[in-house]
Amino acid sequence: MSLLSRKIGIDLGSSTVRIYVKGEGIVVNEPSGVATLPRLIGKAGGRPRLFRPDVVVSVRSGVTSRERREMTEVAMSAGARQVWLIDEPLAAAMGAGLPIGEVRASAICELGAATTEVAVISLSGMLATRSIGVGGRTLDAAIAARFNLTKQEGEEVKIAVGSAMAVEEPSTVAVRGVEITSNDVAEAIANPLRLIATAISEVVRELPRRHAVEVRERGIVLSGGGAELRNLSRYITTTTGIPAVVAEEPQTTVVRGTGVALDTFEVLKRNKSNLR
After folding, report:
1. Domains and CATH numbers, the chain
2. Residue-wise pLDDT tens digits, 180-192
3. Which of 83, 203, 233, 269 could form a disulfide with 75 if both were Cys (CB 3.0 to 4.6 A apart)?
4. What predicted TM-score, i.e. pTM, was given to this entire model?
5. Looking at 82-165, which runs of residues are DSSP E strands?
């Protein structure tokens, strides 16, 4: 692809940064602690001083206007020709393939490392949103606290045997000689999961009756790394009464959504929180 027409989508996740380049796919997937916008744009854009790329950056829906302006300015100074910001849940919905342009409402729940973003979308705009400070790290910390582990060990237990609900035949993992089952983990993370379910229910309650009915009929898609927790979709369905399914490749829904947005600028223009 010619660098002259290079288009870049960036997902600035709390734990991982991913970059999508049109025509190439996901080209960067690395810990967020070492990532900065100038380095990322330079890395993905080739020679930005000669051929300045168009850039779409996903941002949390709760980010302030001032923070959005600052992010736009940083991206421009890093070599972008044009910068668009897209709210994370809208990007996730696009990456998950939801029909966001329809009048009928679509619902998304993006479970990241530090936050969970819930949104209901119609005609490419967000009807209602909720952003809470509960994410994968919250679950890790809850597991660690319950079993007197480090947060790293808590995450390892979650990955090995974690489940959102108790099961008839739980898996078991041994840590420092102590056996921990899937059902033990489900009990340990019950409170943060309840907060996520509550956020979903609150967003639906804010909707006009017609759209609330549509969400309950169509269900909600779970995306983000946190969506990979075993039995989470069943937990959400049981707790909220809203059918829930996990997106394909949930960890990359947001960055793939920025890639879709690169060719859908009308969506970006309609997203009122975007700055150009």
Report:
1. 3-90+253-270 (3.30.420.40), 98-247 (3.30.420.40)
2. 999 999 999 999 9
3. 83
4. 0.91
5. 82-87, 106-111, 116-122, 125-132
